[in-house]
Amino acid sequence: MPRLSSEEGTATLSAWLVKVGDRVDKGSLIAELETDKATVELEAPVEGQIEALVVAAGTEGLKPGALLGRIVPTASVAEAPAGASPATAATPEKPGKQDGPAVRPLAVAGAASITAPAEPAHDEPSRSPATPLARRLAQTQGIDLENVTGTGVGGRVVQADIERSARGSGAAASPALAAEKAIEQPAATAQRRVSPPPRATAPGVDADAPRPAAHLNLRCAMDAIVAARARLNEDLAARQHAARITLNDFIVRAAALALRDVPAANLRRAGDGVEVAPGVDVALVVATEAGPRTPVIRDADRKGLAVLSEEIRTLAAAARSGASPAQSAMDSSLAITSFARFGIESAYPMLPREQICVLGVGTVLEQPIVRSGALAVGWTLSLTLAFDPGAIGGARAAELLSALRRHLEDPLSMML
Question: How many Å apart are CA 360 and CA 365, to the nearest integer?
Answer without folding.
Answer: 15
